Structure prediction request, 326 residues.
Amino acid sequence: MNLELLSAAVLIAVPCAAIMGYAIQRGATCTVAAVDELLGKRSARRLASLAEASLWVAGGLLLARMVMSLPALPAGYAIGPWTLAGAALLGFGAWVNGACVFGAIARFGSGEWAYALTPLGFYLGCLTVGAFGAPVAQRLPAGSPVLDLPAAAVLLFLVFAAWRAVGLLRRGPTMFAARLWAPHMATAVIGITFVIMLLAVGAWAYTDVLAELARGMSSSVPVRVLFFLALLGGAAWGGWTAGRWHPTLPGWRQVLRCTAGGALMAWGTLLIPGSNDGLILIGMPLLWPYAWLAFATMCATIAASMLLSRQFSHFGHGARRSGAAS
Prediction:
């Protein structure tokens, strides 16, 4: 890519990264929050919205395939025991952190400064994972099953997109903003902006940037860091415009949780390989089985961690009440 084309691509990608950050914050996008909603309210609305982000990416790629030559897409990985171990570690790290890598951006955008330490912890985790002799996942041949889908899949996606557009517009302009930043539409914005970035500059996830920095990879890292800063700026702007920007200095417990949670998520990410932003926006839309299995395992681990934590918490409260009564 020559300099002029690169500059044009960057000018397209930076606003997309900012809009993505804005949508993450306004939609309160987070796998931990989605699992908590499932357990507490028996609602899968947020989980469905995360899956919908994958659908928008897959549909966007199918549409793009009709009008242009697609850039090289990431390869998938074989399923193995490390896929499950890494996904469990990723889920446990997200629970420790109190938010997944998406949720950390959303909470940073609300002024929760502790979540600026989650990327730092992730970076430190990428630096230290080599000490454990992390295995190298078996890479599958390039390509994706989604690109082999028939033309009818494109028509179905267009019908779905039209249905979503009608639902967004039917209540008029006064309700437009409220409906746009509901979880399912916010994740649609995330998926659409990601596709535009993928076509302009290639697949991008901020966790990949942190991993590349930790490995000392210099190719295009400065530009990708710029995208990360735009993502953070968009999230902060989303919090400000929504009235959620309430700067809060963290206590030492939150500092430890966010740093440790980020490191645990990094270890899990490198074992899978892929963090939940990459799984949702890259692996799952490309119909790689390892990505779907890893995301399901991550969610199951978060749910198990929440349930066990509540059980032990109830046990502790019961023990204290018994002690007080005696």
Notes: Residues 18 and 229 are 8 Å apart (CA to CA). Residues 316-326 have pLDDT under 50 and may be disordered. The chain has one domain: 3-319. Residues 3-319 form one domain.
